[in-house]
């Protein structure tokens, strides 16, 4: 499905990020993950104005979770945000979903990519 392709693309993005950081000898402070086909109606908020302790995600198209089309993250947060592929292929994905369902079964009525992203961010204890 396209969702699995998205997770694989996130893995590739994280690997490119890590490779570039190793080559340059430093880590990025902030990372923007976005889809190339988004149409911006206004300029992106200035990064330096947004608290790096939060994951910044648009409050729209959140379909039972959080919007997975755009995010501004600190570098440490990016490692979690881009880790869906690893959770899927290692089997940890199921454990995260089962834990979330056990804690709040009514909240997760629909299985959506946005719900998974919300579960993943909460599992990593990241604030949105």
DSSP helical segment count:
5
Instruction: Tell me the strand percentage band.
Output: 5-15%
Distance between the termini: 27 Å
Task: Categorize the overall geometry.
Answer: globular
Structural class: mainly alpha
* Strand segment count: 2
List its traits.
single chain; 128 residues; mainly alpha; 5 helices; 2 strands; globular
Describe the structure.
The protein is globular, with a radius of gyration of 15 Å. Strands 1-2 form a two-stranded antiparallel ribbon. With 128 residues, it is mainly alpha-helical. It has helices at residues 2-24, 75-81, 84-90, 92-103, 113-123, and strands at residues 30-34, 70-74.
What is the secondary structure topology, with strand pairs?
Layout: H1 2-24, E1 30-34, E2 70-74, H2 75-81, H3 84-90, H4 92-103, H5 113-123
Antiparallel strand pairs: 1-2
Brief sketch in words of this structure:
The chain has 128 residues and is mainly α.
């Amino acid at each position: 499905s396209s969702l699995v392709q998205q997770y694989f693309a996130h893995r590739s993005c994280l690997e490119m990020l890590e490779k570039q950081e190793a080559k340059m000898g430093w880590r990025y402070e902030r990372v923007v993950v976005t889809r190339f086909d988004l149409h911006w109606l206004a300029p992106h908020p200035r990064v330096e104005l947004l608290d790096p302790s939060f994951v910044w995600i648009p409050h729209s198209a959140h379909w039972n979770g959080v919007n997975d089309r755009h995010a501004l993250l600190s570098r440490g947060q990016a490692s979690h945000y881009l880790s869906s592929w690893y959770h899927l292929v290692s089997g940890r994905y199921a454990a995260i979903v089962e834990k979330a369902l056990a804690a709040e079964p009514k909240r997760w009525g629909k299985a959506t990519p946005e719900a998974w992203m919300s579960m993943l961010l909460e599992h990593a204890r990241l604030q949105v």
